[in-house]
Every structure is written in C-alpha cells, then in structure tokens.
Amino acid sequence: MYEHDVLIIGAGLAGLRAAVESVRLGVDTAVLTKVHPVRSHSNAAQGGINAALTDRGDEWEGHAYDTIKGSDYLADQDSVEVMVREAGDTLIELEHMGVIFSRDEEGRLGTRAFGGQREARTFFVGAITGSAMLHVLHEQIMRNDVRIYEEWFVTSLIVEDGVCRGAVAMDMRTGEMETIRAKAVIMAAGGAGRVFEPSTNALICTGDGLALAWDAGASLMDMEMVQYHPTTLAGNGILLSEAARGEGAYLINADGDRFMENYAPEFMELASRDVVSRAEQIEINEGRGINGNVLLDLRHLGTKFIEEKLGYLQEVAVEFRGIDLGESPIEIRPGMHYIMGGIKTTIDGATVIPGLYAAGECANVSVHGANRLGANSLLDTIVFGKRSAIAAAEYVKTVGRNGSSDSQLESDKKRIQEILDRPQGIRWAAMRNELAESLTEGIGVFRDQASMEGADAKVDELRGKYPQVSVDNKGKVFNTDLIFALELDFMLDVAKSICQGALMRKESRGAHSRTDLPDRDDENWLKHTHVYKDPDGLGGVRTETSDVTITKWEPIERAY
Ligand SMILES: Cc1cc2nc3c(=O)[nH]c(=O)nc-3n(C[C@H](O)[C@H](O)[C@H](O)COP(=O)(O)OP(=O)(O)OC[C@H]3O[C@@H](n4cnc5c(N)ncnc54)[C@H](O)[C@@H]3O)c2cc1C
Question: How far is the CA of 44 from the centre of ligand 1 (A)?
C-alpha cells in the first residue's frame, strides 16, 4: 500500500498544474497517469489559450460576455468570472515558467482570432500550444519532489463512510494491483471523446475519470452537451484547427458559396462552434455537400502564408489527402471534439464527495455551459487545476489518519481475474465500435427523442452483454487487451449518463439541438441536468436539475 496527502489522477494540463501548486504549498503530492505525462491528450492542442490582456485594450468583461453567450447562457456566470479574471495572470505565469508564446510583429505576445469572440485574444505557441505548456509543466514537476506513478491505471476510487480516501490502480508494467491511499484525490483524467466515433480525441480519452467519480456517487452535470467541431477530416476525425478560420479560411458548399452568410452574417466562419457545425450539417442534409462533407477553403491565403502560419494543417492535407491547401479546398465535416458536461464541482474543484476534487475536461465547473469557445479549455485546465490544488491542500489539513482496509483492492482484483479467466466471449473492440457509432448516430449534431432513446437502448443492451467480454491476452505485463476491456466498462457508464442527460433536456440549447423541440426554453430549462448512478447497481440512474447562476448577463437571443 502507498500513501500520500494528495493523489492527482491524470497528468494532462489540469493534473500537472494542480501538482505544481500542490508541491508549492508543501503538500506530499503524487500524480498517477495511464500514459507518460506528455502523451496526455492536452499535447494535441494546437490553437491556443484565451486571455483578455488589458495592455491591448481588452477587458475581462468582454471575455466573460463572449463565453456566456457562447455557452447559450448555461454557464454559471460566477465560475466564468473567476476564469476570465484569472486568465491574464495565468498566461503571464505560464510564460514565466518557460512557455514561450509566439510574438507579433512588434515583439509583444501575439494573438489570433478564434470563434465566437469579438476580440483576437487567443495566445499560442505556433501550432503546438498544448504540447509546449505540457512540457513546461512536466519540467516543473520533475524538478520538484512529486511521486509520479507513470503507466498506472486506476480501476476504482476508495470511498469509506462517504469520504474519498484514495484509489486502487494497476501498475501496467507488472500487472500488479495496489491501494494508493490519499487524504484527498484530484480527478484530472480528461475527456471522453472515444465514446463517439469518429472523434478528434486520442484513443486514451475514454472518460475513465467521469465514470470513476460517477461510480463513487458524484453528479455528472450537463452531459448532453457534446461539442462537434466544425472542421474535422471525414473518416478518421482528425482535427483541422479553428486557427485556419481564425487566420481567414472560408467554408464553402458544393456550389462554391460561403454559406455562413445565411446563418451568421456578422461572425461568418467565426461564429460559435455549435452554430457553424449546425450550418454545415444543414448544407450537407439539404444536398449542398460533397460526399457528406463541405469544404474548408484557404486558397485565397496563398501557399506561403499557409505554410508559415498553418504549417500543421498543410501537413495533414498533404499526408492524408495529397493536396496543397494553397491550390485546392479540403473536405471537412463536424466531428465530436469535446465534452462540456462533467463531474459537477464548485469554483474550488470540490465535488459532492468530501475528499474528491476534479479539474480539467472531466470536471464541470460550468464555464462552458452548452457550448465551449475554442481556446477556453486550456484556460479552464490551468485556472481550475491550480484552484483545486489550493482547496485540496486546505482540506488535507483537516483530515486525520487514513484507514487501512483493502476491500476495494480485493474486489477489483476479483473483477479483473474474472475477465482474464473468461473463455472466448465478445471482443471489446467490436463492442466499443458499436457503442461509439450508436452514440454518434443518436446524440449527433442534431438529435430527437427517437434517436436519443435508440442510443440509450443500445447502451443498455451492450451493458447487459458486457459480462461476456473476454480478452485473448491473459498475461500480466502491459496487457493492453485488458486495459481496453476495462476502459469499455467506463465508456458504457459515460454513454449512459450522456443519453440520460440528453433525454432529460426538453429544449434546444447550444450543442443540444433537438429537431423535435427546436427552441430554447428559458422559462423551464435555464437549468443544469444532473445524472447520478443509481446505488442499487442495476444500471439505473437518478436525475435532478439545478438552477444556473446568473450574475449580470441576462439571457437574450443569441445571434452571430
Ligand atoms: C486535437 C485537440 C485539439 C485541441 N485544441 C485545443 C486548443 O487549441 N485550445 C483549447 O483550449 N483546447 C483544445 N482542446 C481541448 C483541450 O486540449 C482539452 O480539453 C484539455 O487539454 C484536457 O486536459 P486535461 O488535463 O483535462 O486532460 P488530458 O490532457 O486528456 O489528460 C488526462 C490524463 O488522465 C490520465 N488518465 C485518464 N484515465 C486514467 C486512468 N484510468 N488511470 C490513470 N490515469 C488516467 C491520462 O493518462 C492523462 O494523463 C483540444 C482537444 C483536442 C482533442
């Protein structure tokens, strides 16, 4: 058994930022991650991070308003205020740690325009913003005394008398299971993109943190809010960053028309992501697409500019489509990208379970509401990663000695042994695809009662069959076959919470766009949805709603 004051699950930007703060506060801190820290999905973020810097005449109020409008008024406005007010200092602090942000012509920190915002307030490091931030934070924890459990896989949280006291995890190199006790746990295990197929997310984004916290009794809030990014490659879902449109790319249909004129005459291609994705889907559905896609057109920017400013996009175009973006447009379509919903937390990262905190994409502090603005997620991870560590450090001072029971360890060992012992049954890969495809079908850019019920029924059917899932590899060392089977268990839970959240919300708002109920209904649905796992263990759920916090921005009709 291992023991720490604070155990952070996840070594993406949220987890590493929390770790840096935790050691700064003198707390005995451990970070546990299923992949090497710099392989976390945060590494893939290209576009940038938002902040309103006053030295260029931008104000936090503008950033707050754009975020709240972008959220279709579902974000809690007190949370948004915290995030945008802290953004400037957050950015400078990152720069001081060693993140060298790109400069403008005058040598100041440079910005680019991103969707849904009236100011260009997105700061970036070439096309490797997430990677640069992640490497710098990794360096920071390497030079401090943080225990890193690298390539360890969490299978359960330990909850005793309603209080979170650590986790059970597998050392993937040996296959051994261990109890890691902690006075506080910070869940920073990232998103759940792979519950959909295709997705822009890495294969490791299987919603483990969401499912672990849900199983422990936490509320998953606004899970129906799934972001479809407007520009992903058909087939494999690879992301073509919003930076393309930020730098001036057009969206055109089969007739060569810039169709955003009809949907968002003011913001055009840089309207909010939900608005642009819906516009594309309508063009496709009404027969103005090409092979089920529309086109991203950069020709007017010229090859030289594209290679200088958007080199990565050019690489993707050449590698995957064999085209030069300076000469021909590229086929794109809306693709699953981000989950706005997550483990409900306060602005200090606290969940309803004492001792359990959450930050980053798995958390829902409610800064993104029904639609996240591009480049607000990196900001969310850093601001709330830090805040959750501060709160956890305070909390651990109040907690006495931890327990010593190994009962969770024993039950996890037994569960895993059963999977290993099972003779040839259902293959996880087949079930994983079936699940993800039915979620994309049922909880898509557009959805209705029947499509959501269909997805929900499919999740139940697959849950019923999960006890037949078997693995071919019965070994102990790096048994990724087994890990994938365990991830599928988490994915089924996350999928259930998404379907149930979606079925609850009887209106259209942001990313939740119902063709059978097309209007926003502030009177009845200016509310968060909460889905809890039913404690009877029979696969049921308990649901409730709560009010949205409005401070100064009254909901008005949203137009771009
Ligand atoms: C392609 C792409 C581009 C993006 N671009 C941008 C952008 O430009 N700007 C922006 O603001 N946002 C962007 N986003 C969103 C943003 O990158 C993510 O929301 C954010 O980085 C998530 O950070 P995180 O720390 O919460 O999680 P992650 O970085 O996903 O890290 C999760 C961590 O949890 C660990 N983990 C998970 N499950 C377990 C388990 N069972 N046991 C042990 N460890 C576990 C993993 O090992 C990993 O270390 C992008 C996302 C994608 C997919």
Answer: 8
> Which residue of 42, 133, 226, 242 sits with most ligand 1 atoms within 8 Å of its CB, as the best mutation to test the pocket?
42
Say which CATH number the domain at 502 has: 1.20.58.100
- Decide: 194 in ligand 1 pocket, CB within 6 A: no
Q: Is the pLDDT of residue 416 over 70?
A: yes
Ligand 1 neighbourhood includes 206 CB (under 6 angstroms): no
Q: Catalytic positions, please?
A: 273
- Structure confidence by residue, pLDDT tens digits, 211-270: 999 999 999 999 999 999 999 998 889 999 999 999 999 999 999 999 999 999 999 999
Interval between CA 143 and ligand 1 midpoint (Å): 23
Q: What is the pLDDT of residues 528-546, one digit of tens each?
A: 999 999 877 667 899 999 9
Q: Counting Cβ atoms within 10 Å, is residue 266 exposed (0-12), middle (13-18) or buried (19+)?
A: exposed
The CB-based long-range contact list for 92-101 (8 Å cut-off, 24+ gap) reads 94/133, 94/136, 94/382, 97/136, 97/137, 97/140, 98/136, 98/139, 99/125, 99/132, 99/133, 99/136, 100/125, 100/132, 101/125
Query: SS3 of 299, please?
Result: helix
Backbone angles phi, psi at 137, to 5 degrees: -65, -35
Q: Say yes or no: CB of residue 361 within 6 Å of ligand 1.
A: yes
Q: Which of 299, 323, 322 shows the shortest CA–CA distance to 244?
A: 299
Distance 518 CA to ligand 1 centre (A): 32
479 within some domain: yes
pLDDT of residue 537: 65
pLDDT of residue 325: 96
Which residue do the tokens 């948004």 mark? 80
Nearest residue (by CA) to ligand 1, atom 37, is: 189
Indicate the range of 59-68, 102-111, 132-141, 490-499 predicted with least confidence. Answer: 102-111
Q: List C-alpha distances in Å: 277 to 260, 511, 530.
A: 10, 9, 26
> What's the Cα-to-Cα distance from 246 to each of 47, 268, 494, rounded to whole Å?
9, 11, 33
The residue range of the domain holding 452 is 407-527
* Arithmetic mean of pLDDT, 129-145: 95
DSSP H or E run through 544: strand 541-547
Mean pLDDT (whole number) for 343-364: 98
Contacts of 308 (CB under 8 A, 6+ apart): none
37 found inside a domain? no
The verdict on the CB of residue 34 being under 6 Å from ligand 1 is yes
Residue 237 CB less than 6 A away from ligand 1: no
**Amino acid identity, residue 268?**
M
Structural domain ending residue among the three candidates 293, 318, 334: 334
* Residue 289 lies inside a defined structural domain of this protein: yes
Nearest residue by C-alpha to atom 15 in ligand 1: 377
Ligand 1 and 375: CB distance under 6 A: yes
pLDDT number for residue 434:
98
Overall number of domains in the chain: 2
Q: Is residue 205 part of a domain?
A: no
Domain boundary among 308, 334, 360: 334
- Contact between 451 and 457 (Cβ < 8 Å): no
CA distances from 260 to 153, 239, 257, 324, 373 (A): 44, 20, 9, 24, 18
Give the CATH number for residue 293.
Answer: 3.90.700.10
Q: What is the Cα–Cα distance from 194 to 202, expressed in whole angstroms?
A: 8
